[in-house]
Amino acid sequence: MLRNKLKEALKESMKTKDERSVSTVRLILAALKDRDITARGKGNVEGIPDDEILGLLQSMIKQRRESIALYEKGGRPELARQEAEEITVIERFLPAQMGEAEMTDAITTLIVELEAKNLKDMGRTMAALKERYAGKMDFAKASAMVKSHLA
Q1: Between the CA of residue 115 and those of 25, 111, 125, 129, what are the distances in Å?
Q2: How far apart are CA 70 and CA 114, in angstroms?
Q3: Same domain, 85 and 116
């Protein structure tokens, strides 16, 4: 379970005195706790499932990439480097990302399976992709690919 893997990574980072890993894993666990509290309010006592944790990690990476661009624009390379280091730590908890060819195959197969014909079917197609490939696929790229297939 991903939740246990995160807790173990925090312990290991503390033992090795890897400050970047410690602070990044703590950020992840804090965000996870926030999501768990929100889920409890909706009746889910066990917290969010692994696929939602993967989504959380991907959104954290996306935020950091946006921050890197802003820091580089603003002439703050040290902060950009810090964000890049955090991305490296977060990526350790994600499964291997699908390559371009794998994504194309998965999207094509799913479009045929769902009998998606036009852009009206895009929402349904993206929902199915997110359900099947959570954490394994860059959904920004996937969205553009689905759109080009359905257009």
Answers
A1: 41, 6, 10, 14
A2: 40
A3: no
Tokens standing for residue 11 = 């312990």
The tens digit of pLDDT for each residue in 12-32 reads 999 999 999 999 999 999 999
Helices (H) and strands (E) in the chain, counts: 7, 0
What percent of the chain has a predicted confidence (pLDDT) above 90?
Answer: 68
pLDDT at residue number 37: 93
Amino acid of residue 106: A
| pLDDT < 70 positions in the chain | none
Mean predicted lDDT score pLDDT of the chain: 92
Q: Are residues 67 and 132 in the same domain?
A: no
Tell me the CA end-to-end span of the chain in Å, nearest whole number. Answer: 39
C-alpha R_g of the chain: 18
Residue 45's domain is classified under what CATH number? 1.10.1510.10
Task: Look up residue 99 and give its amino acid.
Answer: G
Q: What angle do CA 93, 51, 48 make, to 5 degrees?
A: 100
